[in-house]
Amino acid sequence: MNRTIITVVGKDTVGIIAKVCTYLADNRINILDISQTIVQGYFNMMMIVDMTHIEQTFEEVSDRLTQIGTEMGVQIKCQREEIFDMMHRI
Question: DSSP states of 27-70 as a string?
Fold first, then answer.
């Protein structure tokens, strides 16, 4: 499995989850786990997804998600699970 961590952070607006999830579904990216919170108007979402069946490169998907985030006024970051784990290892 090719697991990736996607984080979305920014001011809460209508449609953030819908826009991100639609892109993922359209590109055969399966959501394995998702958590989201809104704190005083700020949106935070973390997803673990499976990118095994993507047709683009990881970099192309990551760049497009970054672009989608910019269009919505939020930051979207993608990290491969193994890199995320190494960065957050205690």
Answer: TTPEEEEEEEEEETTEEEEEEEEE-TT-SS-HHHHHHHHHHHHH
Residues whose CB falls within 8 Å of the CB of residue 34, separated by 6 or more in sequence, listed in order = 45, 46, 47, 48
Which helix (H) or strand (E) segment holds residue 9: the answer is: strand 3-11
pLDDT tens, position by position, 38-56? 999 999 999 999 999 999 9
The pTM for the full model equals: 0.88
User: What pLDDT digit, counting tens, does each position of 47-83 carry?
Assistant: 999 999 999 999 999 999 999 999 999 999 999 976 6
Given a contact cutoff of 8 angstroms between Cβ atoms, the answer to whether 74 and 11 are in contact is yes
